[in-house]
Amino acid sequence: MSGPTLRRVLTDAGQPSDLIFLLEDIASACRAVAYEVRNGPLKGNLGLAGSENVQGEDQKPLDIIANDIFVATCTNSPRLAALVSEEIEEVVWLKEPKEGDYLLFFDPLDGSSNLDTNLSVGTIFSIMKVAEDGDRTVLKPGREQVVAGYALYGPATMLVLAAGQGVQGFTLHQGSGIFRLTQPRMTIPEETSEFAINASRHRHWDAPIKRYYDEVTAGRDGPRGRDFNMRWVASMVAEMHRILMRGGVFLYPLDDRNRDKGGRLRLLYEVAPMAMIVEAAGGGATTGTERILDLVPTEPHQRIATVLGSKSEVDHIAALHR
Ligand code: AHG
Ligand code: MN
Ligand code: MN
Ligand code: MN
């Protein structure tokens, strides 16, 4: 087995021990979620749980199990002041916040509509810091993230981290349970001919997104002068991992059906962490009109229009909005 362990990489990078402990707890939680996802059909954990989360989505048993694993595992960390989860309505305060304490944001299971069909799902997380003693705000812009990451429960379980040293990918060794560095420097190719969007929503889109779609589906005779390929897994983690490995652009725009909610994807625990990872890998992250990492959230479960991926393509989509 090759590649340094997660702890070795974090220690060599000079990360503070409190942050290493928290990241190791997160890695343990992801390992436990991977185990539950893989055993889901055997334990009767597919189908619906019969409950809704705060955003009115039907919860799956594994949405709840993954959330419970994260809460039970990560609350051991003495410097963790608060949690924000997709599956928990209120912010969970664990202690009186002190300057330098950590805030953890997570989507315990992303792409959970793929569970019943045994396709790839993931976990997304983000860590920020309390600014000063007693400061109880979690509504901070994404540029203040200390670490952003995701776990992908695909053919292999991977942990991908942006922790101030570019983007690093670790693979879980089945059996020993050790995460080892397998992708030391993940970068997104600047140019791409591949896009990902739920095109069934075409009739609800605004003009700039319709125009982009028309351009990239027009092929060699169109304004882009080449053929584009399309992919849609309906699992943001899987989509973004593909983009980190070979380039591409991912769009979940504002449309007539999600405008009242502000978009589809949630800013604090889905879009901002992915935006940090994408920028650290050399890509771009915009709503179409604003840089995602500069947005100051107005509420913990806020949704936002999302364009992420290869820099030149993201810039082109932003230009279509001007
Ligand atoms: P979640 O499973 O955490 O609620 O998030 C699902 C998100 C995201 O992963 C994916 O990109 C998108 O929803 C899929 O949307 P469609 O159902 O429109 O395909
Ligand atoms: Mn959900
Ligand atoms: Mn999600
Ligand atoms: Mn989720």
TrEMBL record:
User: Which residue ranges does the record assign to the Fructose-1-6-bisphosphatase class 1 C-terminal domain?
Assistant: 188-321
| EC numbers, comma separated | 3.1.3.11
Per its UniProt record, the required cofactor names are:
Mg(2+)
- Superkingdom per UniProt: Bacteria
Which residue ranges does the record assign to the Fructose-1-6-bisphosphatase class I N-terminal domain? Answer: 17-183
Primary localization: cytoplasm
The UniProt annotation places Mg(2+) 1 binding at E86, D107, L109
Do you know which NCBIfam families this protein is assigned to?
PRK09293.1-3
Give the family from UniProt.
Belongs to the FBPase class 1 family.
The subunit field of the Swiss-Prot or TrEMBL record says: Homotetramer.
Give the protein's recorded name: Fructose-1,6-bisphosphatase class 1
Native source organism of the sequence: Litorisediminicola beolgyonensis
